[in-house]
Design brief:
Length: about 350
């Protein structure tokens, strides 16, 4: 199962809206087939592993990181494919909460005389499938907040200069972080200040993440790098109901997807929960928020951040610099959100840490 989880994890950011599943088929300790959900979500991991195993799959065990599907969608049910191949035992990590599948895959297998075992490495599987699980059960994507800051928590000089706080190894690692998310999101202030492309670079051919811009008034120009690179990766604009028509038309002409989002309490700021729900409704399961400080703080205040990926460089900027988080509106230390450290390691001269909120 650990091997299957490693295989499946390779599909993070590449297979949405489907889960990144891994499958190993083995008999008597010998691996006969390996599979992972393929680019764009099809074919499924079980189909790939069965194709590798061929006729040898009869009487074998299939280890799958998620309950095999039981519904007919773009592909036939994986549970039926396992039955037809003569698999004798299916071991899977966690149940699929999708109401089209939940419990039905296991029931279909058992009804056909297949031995079924579940709960193998369930905690690790829940972590790997967190985006899919949250989208299905809560209607929201899993959100990673990425921060790259100085020792004193600054992301830029007072002038806005920020290139580069971290060294090349950390920046390369951050591109890998982008690649394992379905979407990369920034706010309008960051877009206006940096004119970013938000693409994954240096990792070869892959499915680029959707580039999401939270821009209530559509202040960012369609003539920007985002607007000029639609052929590389899609751009989705989350804007308010009063965004200017000329700006909407310009972005639409450039090929962007425009999404009208309600504002927060009748004001001008977008309702971020509604914004994320709109992304989930389009199939997005994992979002990497790259700032800036205002959007990051708003997401934290709203309780919408699941984990923080923090890159810390060994330099100090001072209080005049721009903070990695804007005001959280917290008056007492007891009310400050506390995170749990998941991992910490050195990347070149910088430190990377992953925190669960």
């Amino acid at each position: 199962m650990a091997h299957a989880l490693r295989l499946g994890a390779r599909g993070m950011g590449q297979v949405w809206p489907n889960p990144a599943v891994g499958c190993i088929i083995e008999k008597d300790g010998r691996i006969l087939g390996r599979g992972a959900t393929q680019l764009g979500g099809r074919p499924h991991a079980e189909t790939v592993a069965l194709a590798q195993a061929g006729a040898a799959a009869r009487g074998a065990t299939a280890h799958v990181t998620l309950e095999p599907c039981a519904h007919i969608g773009h592909t036939p049910p994986c549970a039926q494919a396992l039955i037809d191949a003569g698999i004798a035992h299916v071991s899977y990590a966690i149940d699929d909460p999708d109401p089209r599948v939940s419990g039905r895959g296991a029931a279909m297998l058992r009804a056909a005389g297949v031995k079924v075992t579940s709960g193998i490495l369930a905690e690790a599987a829940r972590a790997d499938h967190a985006g899919f699980l949250k989208r299905v059960t809560q209607g929201l994507p899993f959100v990673t907040l990425k921060l790259a800051s100085s020792l004193d928590g600054r992301i830029a000089m007072a002038s806005g200069e920020s290139q580069w706080i971290t060294a090349p190894p950390a920046r390369a690692h951050a591109h890998g972080l982008r690649a394992c998310h379905d979407a990369v999101m920034v706010g309008s202030n960051t877009a206006l200040a940096d004119d970013p492309r938000l693409t994954v670079r240096g990792l070869g051919a892959l499915r680029q993440p959707v580039r999401v811009l939270v821009d209530g008034g559509l202040r960012h120009s369609a003539a920007s790098q985002l607007g000029r690179s639609m052929d590389v990766a899609p751009v989705w604009l989350l804007h308010g109901p009063h965004a200017p028509l000329p700006a909407r038309q310009a972005w639409a002409a450039a090929g962007a997807k425009l999404m009208d989002i309600q504002t927060q309490d009748g004001g001008t700021a977008l309702n971020l929960r509604a914004a994320l729900a709109a992304l989930a409704a389009e199939g997005i399961t994992r979002v990497l928020c790259e700032g800036g400080g205002g959007l990051a703080a708003a997401l934290v205040r709203a309780g919408l951040v699941d984990q923080v990926a923090l890159y810390t460089a060994g330099l100090a900027i001072g209080s005049a610099g721009l903070p990695n988080l804007a005001d959280l509106g917290i008056a007492k230390l007891a009310n400050a959100p506390r995170a749990r450290l998941i991992e910490s390691r050195r990347i070149g001269p910088d430190l990377f840490s992953l925190w669960q909120l």
